[in-house]
Fold this sequence. Notes:
The chain is α+β, with helices and mostly antiparallel strands. The chain has one helix at about 45-75, and strands at about 1-10, 15-25. It has one domain (about 1-80): Thiol Ester Dehydrase, Chain A (Roll). Strands 1-2 form a two-stranded antiparallel sheet. Strand 1 and strand 2 (about 15-25) form a beta hairpin. The longest helix is centred in the last third of the chain and has 29 residues, at about 45-75.
Amino acid sequence: MEIGVRVEAENLLTGEVRHAASAYLTYVAIDRQGRPTPVPPLVVETDEERRRFREAKSRREMRLAERKKEDACSRDSSSCG
C-alpha cells in the first residue's frame, strides 16, 4: 500500500500555511510470522482513483527497476553508472 503524505508548516502569528515536504510511504502487510502477505485488491471506481492507481503503479515499477540496478551494481561494479 502506498500512502501520500503532505507536510505543511503554519506560522502561528500570521496564519500563513506553506508546503514543507511531500513523500510517498510504502507499507507491506505482514502475517503473524512477520512475512509479507497478500491483501484484497484495491477497488478503484472514480477517474481520480484510476489516475492515482496508475501513478502509484508507475512509481512502483521505477522503484523496482532502481532496486534491480542497485543489486546488479553491488554484484558487479562495471554495471554501475
